Every structure is written in C-alpha cells, then in structure tokens.
Predict the 3D structure of the following.
Amino acid sequence: MNFFENNSKLEPHKILVNFIKNNPSIKTAVDLGCGAGRDTKFLVQNNITVTAIDRVDVTKFLYKDLTAEEKARLAFEQAKFSEAYLPKTDLVISYEALPFCNKEALVKLLDKIKNSLNENGYFLCNFFGKNDSWFGNDKIQFYEKEEIEDLLKDFKILKLNEIERDGESAMHQMKHWHVFWVIAKKV
C-alpha cells in the first residue's frame, strides 16, 4: 500500500471535526495538501463546498464513496502551493503539509491564505516541532512555538496546542510526533 491508500482509510482530524461542530456558519473551505481526502470528504459530507489542492492527482481517492450531491461540492486542483489558485473562502485547512514548504515559500503562502479568507475566516493547520523523530530531514521544516507565532503574526491565534506522542505514520512506521496544532482567524 502507498501513502495515499493508507491515508484514505484514516478518520478526519479530530480538531477539524470539533471545529466544524462548533462553527456551523462555515460554508466553503480549501484543503491545502488534501492527500487522499480524509478531511475533504468530511467537509463535503457536512454540506461544505471544498476546493481540494494537492501536487499529486488524488482524484481517485477524493471522489471515492461520495454521493453525486457530495461530488458536486468538491473541486480538485492539482498544483504546487506556489502555483495554486485559492478562491475566497470561510476556512483554509492544511494538515501535515506546511512543514514540507521551505520557509521563504511558506511566508508567501501564508499571505496568499490570508488574502483568500473571507472576513472572519479561519485557518487550521499544523507544524512539526523540533522533538519530532523526523527532525534533521532537510526536506521538512521544524519549528519552535515562538517561530509559529511569528509566522502567523497577521492572524489572531485562537489555539496553539503542542502535542508530543508516539504513534504510527501513514506508512505504518512508529515514530515520535511533535506537532503544533493551530486554529487562527483572519483579523
């Protein structure tokens, strides 16, 4: 099995599920680095229109098991983040994707995200911390809490939770996770 097949079987992120439950006014969303669609599917199944973006064509995973009505609420764009078009939206989510952007590209992407958000729009994301077992991989960026606060200085950070735990990766390999989970709002 590959990364996308493994990810397609995962439940949506709990932080997103709880957020949507408590914010019923969300009508549109962008899923940056949507992967196999674990969060995209949850959103469209909750009557939210979603633009899902990934650098790889993941349509066979995204549209699988969706009704015709749900598929009508989903648009997929295959693009690198630097080239992606972000429509105006109520919510942008990006899980396990932003750490793979170099810091210069991330600053530009965060500006693009802010501009795409409607007034009072939300940004949910996560970043890897320096205690993560992948630390040292030069293709991944790792952050301290203060660095994340600085990166998101143009947003109002509503939650910034730091979690460390041991668990499996999508490829069923055990690792130590050090992740900062963020809920931010456009100001």
User: Anything to note?
Assistant: The radius of gyration is 16 Å. Helices lie at 3-8, 14-22, 38-44, 59-62, 68-72, 103-116, 145-151. The chain has one domain: 3-186. The longest strand covers residues 155-168.
